[in-house]
Design a protein that fits this description.
With about 260 residues, the chain is an alpha+beta fold. It has 2 domains: about 150 residues, Jelly Rolls; about 100 residues, Arc Repressor Mutant, subunit A (Orthogonal Bundle). It has 10 helices and 10 strands. Strands 1, 2, 3, 4, 5, 6, 8 and 10 form an 8-stranded mixed beta sheet that branches. Strands 7-9 form a two-stranded antiparallel ribbon. β3 and β4 form a beta hairpin. α1 packs across α3, α2 packs antiparallel against α3 and α7 runs antiparallel to α8. The longest helix has 19 residues.
């Protein structure tokens, strides 16, 4: 299988009725709805993803949703994959951000479907990569809203970026509100108000989300569930598993068993 897609998470799920709490990823999310629907909450707006629609989330974009009989396929390409392709097309190193969360474009849907089909059926690497480039280049040409020069997540939200870096420097720390507020030279009141307004999550939800993102990557790299949970600051494995399923829609044991493909 293509080395380009090593450690990239894929999902292929039938008839989901899960609710997904608001969360974010440090990657893009690109997905297709085949049947049923997902009611999505994205950037304080609600959308419906019906069959034959394409869903896009930019890195750091807060989203959640409620599904009903939802059959879908997702994958989570890194910023590096998308920005490298953008550079190949336009000759400059930039990161595209996409305009619409839900795209009703049957041509794009078909191209992404062909890529997913080839990947899940373990077709030759050259075919999978060609289909990936064809689909992503169409997305870049048709749906790029703006581009950024900097690779850093949350670069356009200074306080969020500082908090993100502070948490990631010591992910297993038992953070207090005072610690987070002092880190950005604000009172606890102003930190809470501005953080929630600018990001859409509470600081506690943000910390849990970042720990779960980190644990997800550790499990994909081969760590046990207990090792991953302790490394990111969860001392109670059942608490970790409950939160993991609430955010991602599947348990850490399913991720561990299937590596980078969730079926």
């Amino acid at each position: 299988m293509s080395k380009l897609l090593n450690n990239i998470l894929f999902e292929n799920v039938n008839h989901s009725n899960e609710d997904f709490t608001k969360h974010y990823h440090d990657t893009y999310t690109i997905g297709l709805t085949y049947k049923g629907f997902l009611k999505v909450f994205n950037k304080n707006e609600s959308f419906y993803s019906y069959e034959y629609s394409v869903r896009i989330n930019n890195p750091g974009e807060v989203h959640g949703g409620k599904s009903k009989e939802w059959s879908h396929a997702n994958f989570y390409p890194t910023v590096e994959i998308i920005s490298n392709l953008y550079e190949e097309i336009f000759g400059e190193k930039k990161i595209p951000y996409f305009q619409k969360h839900i795209i009703n474009n049957k041509k794009l849907f078909s191209k992404l479907h062909n890529f997913f089909y080839a990947y899940f059926n373990k077709e030759d690497e050259i075919l999978v990569e060609a289909l990936l480039i064809d689909a992503l280049s169409s997305l870049i040409f048709d749906s790029t809203l703006y581009t950024k020069n900097d690779k850093e997540i949350f670069e356009d939200k200074k306080m969020i970026k500082q908090t993100y870096e502070f948490i990631n420097d010591s992910i297993d720390t038992n953070f207090t509100l005072e610690m987070l507020a002092n880190n950005v030279d604000l009172s606890k009141y102003h930190f809470l108000r501005i953080f929630k307004r600018d990001f859409g999550l509470t600081p506690h939800a943000f910390i849990v989300n970042e720990r779960l993102n980190r644990a997800n990557n550790l499990i994909k790299k081969g760590l046990s569930i207990s090792e991953a949970s302790v490394n990111v600051g969860f001392n109670d494995q059942s608490h970790f598993s409950r939160n993991f399923k609430k955010y991602f829609g599947y348990t850490p044991s399913i991720l561990q068993k299937n590596s980078n493909i969730i079926l």
